[in-house]
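Job type: complex structure
Entries:
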Amino acid sequence: MTDPEWMAAIRALVGKDYGRVYGWDPVNVPMARQWAEIMGVDNPRYAEGKLVPPAMLQVWCMEGPTINHYPPGSTTENPYEALKLIEAHGYPSVVAVNSELEFDRYLAPGEKLYYTTRLDAISEEKSTALGTGFFITLSMTFFSQHAAGDEEVGRLLFRVFKFKPAHAAKPAMGTPVGPPKIKRPAPGISDDTRFFWDGAHAGKLMIQRCKACGTLRHPPGPCCPECYSFEWDALEASGRGTVYSFVVMHYPEVPPFDYPNPIGLIELEEGTRLVAQLVGVKPADVHIGMPVQVEFNQVDVGAPDGNDTIALPQFRPVVG
Amino acid sequence: MTTTSGIAGKVAIAGLGATEFSKNSGRTEIRLAMEATLAALADAGIEPGEVDGFCSYTIDKVPEYEIARLLGTQNVTFFSQIPHGGGAACAPVLQAAMAVATGVAKTVVVYRAMNERSWYRFGSGSYGFANTPTVENVNYGWYMPSGLHTPASWVAMFAQRYMYRYGATSEDFGRVAVAVRDFAATNPAAFFYQKPITLEDHQKSKWICEPLHLLDCCQESDGAVAMVVTSLERARDLRQKPVVVKGAAQGIYEGQQIMTSFYRDDITGLPEMGLVANQLWKQSGLTPADIQTAVIYDHFTPFVLLQLEEFGFVPRGEAKDFIRAGHHRRGGKLPLNPHGGQLGEAYIHGMNGVAEGVRQVRGSAVNQVADVEHVLVTAGTGVPTSGLILGVE
């Protein structure tokens, strides 16, 4: 695509070096330990303070809880100025596409860091599934301060896509838009199981039933394991059951689920079992034998840019 | 000894090779496979060009034809792969033994090579199942949308019910981990060499999926193991003491699913492993009392208890008492996983457990159990599975 006219001035910034951004604190063990805990990194050498995680490189020079509040002496120029300028021309959304960290060595507690930024490249305008916009590449170089001369200790290549969303509901200009929202996996649905999901959509919990011998079965299948008949229909369950077994998911934390996530193996009054999330109950209060009642909750599933939803059966403790 | 099996006592494991076990091998899986295979052939004293059969796991990403090409083999007359992840672990030896016993092949390499830790991870919870209506996609569709999406979570569902029914506790699971980590601590090949744990460490380790703590879960590893299977008759003339396949079996049982057989009347057993056990005892003519040490698949600690029950080492529900008494520990009545298991040595999908069985029978293990005549080795649980009894001639 040919550049719009306004792009020339922005493109002239390519190659520009932005000044130093300092870290608030020197490299230190308490922050490394907290970072490892929050990130779920259980390397004992980090917990014991013997080593500082190299992947924290960027962390040491972050602004902290207050946005744009950098230590004295830091550059007052915005290293992301190109993004701001492009945004002003109607490209409100941004998604990070590459973040490549390189480390030269482990850092030691007490080292004071800063980084400098260079605007490496702005692509020509590209169309992607997300929308139309520009890939912008920045490279940050990290240094450790020494009296005898500062030492380069690592680099970060950071590439973002600054774009106009392809889909409807365009956000107001300047509204920050995060990366696409990750949704729950869509279930595989076959001719043998569609009745279950259609039933859920209508607020009914369905159990497959053999037309020949009346056997109820879940998960559903094409034929009866008792009499081998391929003829079946479905029964609407009462939705009442008990917790036959359960787990509480903690790790890994996979979006978009909330953790801890209690999940039950529910034995229905009709005798079949199914797996479902437990809602309206603290994980510590879940127990085997607990009476529960189904409810259906609409959840987004599938591709981030799609509109698919399913009605997911979930179970809530029966009160009283 | 009389046997009712067509293979028991006729076939031997004649060579054993492995790479180091790590979290990042730094080299390709095909290279790991070749290093282990060539080491196994050298161990046996067999020329690479003699290999005429291969067996591995469907989940292994190193194809046998590529190993055959790099070995320069001309005539490969047998090759097969076993499905269902770690449930395959013992079955390549079974199928190799079937090929050897029937004359389909003479020299079969079984192998497992993986950069599971550094290239991909099984417990990530993000598998990219699509919604095309294949059996697998439909099956996992009952769990993924609710977030029940890791092997640990599937095992935990069985474990919770088992604890409820028999009174086993998280500490009982912890005692399994403590004992195998004690073995790993004295195995220089183990990732957790010189790193034993206490029961307190286990109890304090973070929740992965209640009722499983981090230290109930095996490691993830890079590495490769290979073995050479040939006839007992031929093995006698080779470099190593033959390790005889006394029994080898696979099993799928009623109501079987892949890790989610939640719909059986009872979910406090592993009936597919019971099926394997019955076959192994029958083929070998042995009983639990004839086993000096066992390599029990330990991807997650609770299923070690269930396996002890399926094999009849203890009555149903009493594995916790066996574990509390310490019979599974170093110096116990039935030391389990003396290499340190997958909790302590490495997770090579059970193939490193078969290797430990070979070393225990040879008498060359680092934590050698005294007077070993027969070793039981089991494969992954919760899935269609397999098992072996290896023994001296």
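Summary: DSSP finds five helices and 14 strands in chain A. Residues 168-172 of chain A have pLDDT under 50 and may be disordered.
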